[in-house]
Amino acid sequence: MKLVTRAVDANLPAKGSATRGEPLRIPQGDADFFPRHVLVVDDEPLIRWSVSETLSELGYDVEQASDAEAALRLVTTTARPFSLVVLDLRLPDMNDLSLLGTLRQLLPTAALILMTAFGTAEVVAHAQALGATILNKPFELDDLRRAVS
To answer: Tens of pLDDT along 23-48?
Structure first.
């Protein structure tokens, strides 16, 4: 018979517990147990909903924002960083690549997908230089599925 032992740090709370007054910390990067955290940013409710539903069906944990301000608030206050952001180029409070650039700085390892009906060669080149994948509107939801897989 073999005895198996496990070292436990006495300063850490037990697995699945939290110390009083502190939120439960969910491990990062454990895709086997926790779905990837995704942010969808679009001012058009129907597009935001359909993209969010598609990603939810693929097993992603999706949050939504209707403008750049709400997106930045979510990104800077979430306990679990976003691993994917799907955003529209033109939003009510920002209609250039500023949000994309800011997201790249705040989430350096996140995948970024830029949705746009205004994908000029200059916009596409700059977005790709920031590491974004481009989805030209209108697009099929299968195109989105392929882009995130």
So the answer is: 433 334 444 445 799 999 999 999 99
